[in-house]
Specification:
about 325 residues; 15 helices
């Protein structure tokens, strides 16, 4: 039983089964499925942001801009050019990744609060561009997004989003475990030390922005397809701050932490929807409490259980040793 409980692959397999069965467990409720889908989209975005902030140490306060670009790319390519889904969705990531490249190139010379200000300016400018570029973005009216015929029902597209979420999680995990991911962490710890070991910090900082923007653009594209509409008000500066709250509360430099934060801050606004202004207050209190009492995020609560488990095991070992000694003594007395 213990090996099964400690088997990560078994837990991951069980989680995937639950994801696939969720529509039927929820009675195919459109509301619950939509909450689940939004949580998945925010989880992808939070993992992408965590790669940049938690693992790379590069502060970004404008990731909502990348979500908008991904969403508008899908809307423009489907509405104005009529391109198919299997071309449009990857292009939403590619276009957003190229924008991330243009942002990352000048930003490699910045760090800390200076990089945060630049990224915030980017996040604030995208909705304004969308508002004023009427001929391309539809201005205040926004743009509709139509799904392909084969994926027209919510249930069908739900499974597309589940598959994309699992795939992107796997890709980010492997990136962080690769030599590239180790370079990201080295830059976060000390750029000077990273340079002294031969790491091209400018190159890797730019790559961080490109990868993070690419996956965030895919999340924005999935959002556009699911909602069926994209407008300048969908992703504002508050969305960027919410994404930061997700990774801080869940746990920086942790994929499970980013997912936990995304789930919490997707469900929380729904619970407090009837109380105007309460949502932002609760989010602020949650961030402050986590920073004060669990600075490594809610994911660090698992360390408590691990410590308890190790202490129980350490207590069991001397007990087993003493029991063996007693049995050995009895055997000697019996002349065995």
């Amino acid at each position: 039983m213990k090996p099964l409980l400690n088997n990560k692959r078994a837990w991951i397999g069980l989680l995937i089964i639950l994801l696939l069965a969720f529509p039927f467990l929820s009675g195919q409720s459109s509301y619950l499925i939509t909450i689940f889908v939004l949580g998945s989209i925010y989880a992808i975005t939070a993992m992408s942001l965590n790669l940049l902030v938690g693992n790379g140490g590069q502060i970004s306060v404008g990731h909502a801009g990348f979500l908008s670009i991904g969403g508008y790319t899908v809307a423009i390519l489907t509405t104005k050019l009529g391109l198919p889904f299997f071309i449009v969705l990857p292009l939403s990531g590619v276009v957003t990744g190229l924008i991330g490249l243009f942002i990352g190139l000048p930003a490699v010379r910045l760090s800390g609060q200076f990089l945060a200000v630049v990224s915030l300016g980017f996040g604030l400018s995208i909705p304004q561009i969308a508002l004023n570029w009427d001929s391309l973005t539809g201005g205040y009216s926004g743009l509709p997004v139509s799904r392909p015929t084969l994926l027209s029902s919510d249930l069908q597209f739900f499974y597309v989003i589940v598959v994309m979420s699992v795939l992107i999680t796997w890709l980010i995990y492997n990136i962080l475990k690769s030599s590239m991911g180790r370079a990201f962490v080295a830059i976060r710890e000390s750029e000077v030390a990273a340079q002294s070991t031969g790491i091209n910090t400018s190159f890797y900082k730019t790559i961080m922005f490109v990868i993070s923007a690419f996956f965030t653009g895919l999340a924005g594209g999935l959002y556009g397809y699911w909602i069926g509409f994209i407008s300048p008000n969908d992703f504002t500066a508050m969305t960027s701050f919410l994404l930061l709250a997700m990774i801080v509360v869940g746990g920086l430099a942790s994929i499970p932490g980013a997912i936990i934060g995304a789930v919490i801050f997707t469900i929380l606004p729904e619970l407090t929807r009837s109380f105007i202004g309460v949502t932002n207050i609760i989010i602020g209190i949650a961030v402050v409490l986590v920073i004060l009492f669990r600075p490594n995020g809610l994911i660090s609560l698992l360390d408590i259980f691990k410590k308890k488990k190790s202490s129980v095991n350490s207590m069991e070992e001397p007990l087993a040793f003493s029991t063996n000694q007693e049995h050995g003594g009895v055997a000697k007395d019996a002349g065995l």
